[in-house]
Amino acid sequence: MIRNIFTVAIAVLGVATACAQPQDSIRTHVNLHITDRPDTKEAYLLKADADFRFGILKVVKFEDGQCSFDFVAEAPFEMELMFDDELRQGMWVNKRFYAEGDTVSGFFGSGSESVRFESAGAIQAARTRLNEDIDKATGGMEMTYLARLNEMERTGEMVNEEIRPLYLQMKEAKDEERDSLRKLIAPIYEKYDNDIETEAYKQLYQKLLGIWQKQDTLRWNYLADSDPSLFGLMEIRRILSGESSRINIDEAIARIERTFNERYGGFSTHPYYDECKLMFTTRLLRPGRKYDADYKLHDQEGNEAVMADLIKGRYAVIDLWASWCGPCRRNSMALIPVYNKYVDRGLSYVAVAREMGNTKSMNIAMERDGYPWKSFVDINDADGIWAKNGCPTSGGSIFLIDADGVIVAVNPTAEFIDKYLDEHLAK
What we know:
By secondary structure, the chain is of the alpha+beta class. The protein has helices at 52-55, 84-89, 122-137, 142-155, 164-172, 175-191, 199-225, 230-243, 250-263, 271-282, 307-311, 326-334, 336-342, 360-369, 385-388, 414-424; strands at residues 26-34, 42-47, 58-61, 66-73, 77-83, 96-99, 103-108, 115-119, 296-298, 304-306, 316-321, 348-355, 375-379, 397-401, 407-410.
């Protein structure tokens, strides 16, 4: 998927339930071939939808445009590949395949449409067949639209002429140069009320959105109407992970959840089953819903706490952040005056950092940013706190919770939180 712009929906098809239950050990052999990609030197293997900052399972180097490796797992999984040059550019094309105990060959060119997998596996073969059928049903234009939108983003044609030079500078800028460019860009965004995309880009995107909506309808109908299968379980997980989040899918999710609860119990030993159960729950993390605080967290010394105990009966701000996430840290810094104003009036402020390896960067960030609170930490996602809060691939999120444990707002501004607490906390 071209993640800086949008998410690509991929159609689904069920496979025989013979693939249903995990096996003791499944070895998949993978051959990769690249052409017209002189800057691609390495490929990174992850489980599908994993955060690449934490989830890279294997790094392989290309020699003469080829590389091979084996992947061993306890069950069939949907996997994802990323290339080093795409990560440097901050934009990558979705390259997914199924590790189901056979040989998979992947072929990649320079464009977003140049991704192809070949496999004798039942799951991969079924996906290929249905993708071809869906492509015919939707006019075969999806990849053409994707390629053109990608080109418009690359050249700056997606934004109006006034902001285009700064937009292109921002794409090439180093981290230390971005703050000054943001200051120049901000007034232009304000001038156009954040509507800086060209009409040509908008119209093309709407055409693509129409194709995606048709694909989504077919996916949801399949999951509700076909026999349960491991492929179906994988697609339920994909939908819940956000692959179809570009349109309102609440009704479809409710329908799929009924199907999952009634018919997918036979897949309870596959890791995806528990992941789906958790993701159905986290989709309820929205204003007006009860916040599920029944989870554990740890401080730097390894001491354990339960979120429910920290916020019970109190107005609370839950600040999920990371030392490596610039926007998270700016949001946290904006909340320092709010903390100072309301902590003595009963506010419970719970900060949790998502860190890699150790807490060194976290402590440096806390000192540099001047946070007056202590922070819990989830190192290498050991506690799974981000997944439990419905944001497994993001740096952070902020929840405002009332004294009854109900979510007031998700990712509110500091100004919103200040106004709300001023109205509800005793002075």
